[in-house]
Amino acid sequence: MSIRFNLMKENAAAYAALGNLDTLGRESSIPKDLQELIKIYASSLNHCAFCLDMHTKEALENGETIQRIVGVNAWREAPFYSDKERVVLELVEEVTFIHQHGVSDAVYAELERLYSEKEIGELYLLIATINAYNRLGVMSQMQPKADK
């Protein structure tokens, strides 16, 4: 499968604008390990192989465990995620599939209990940005390079 469209090449300004959002997310107060779990889980839900590959490798480079990376798709059953991580993973799922039920009051109430308004805004930005990247990656048929 070859890439259909290269946004970086064909509309560099649009890609740079998305990159600016990504930078804001990376520089937020949200811990880097949680940022990568957000990106891995959303990329998995969106079936974006390119982003899933990239963020899995970044998480490993930053010290995340293989167990937590592999287990993220079964986070409800896995014992190695904190309450703060669990509500964020639920939020990732609800935002990624927002067309189904929106963001539930229960998830938002738990977010308010565990995170400040500033942090909730940062989480929203992180989740929206990776979803945008995923959609561009899938539409463009971006593929990761095979490891050697």
TrEMBL record:
- InterPro entries linked: AhpD-like, AhpD_core, CMD-like
Which GO molecular function annotations are given, in alphabetical order?
Answer: peroxiredoxin activity
Q: Which Gene3D superfamilies match?
A: AhpD-like
| TM region positions | none
Q: Which residues form the Carboxymuconolactone decarboxylase-like domain?
A: 12-94
Q: Which PANTHER family match?
A: 4-CARBOXYMUCONOLACTONE DECARBOXYLASE FAMILY PROTEIN (AFU_ORTHOLOGUE AFUA_6G11590), CYTOPLASMIC PROTEIN
Q: What is this protein called?
A: Carboxymuconolactone decarboxylase family protein
Write the lineage as a comma-separated list.
Bacteria, Bacillati, Bacillota, Bacilli, Bacillales
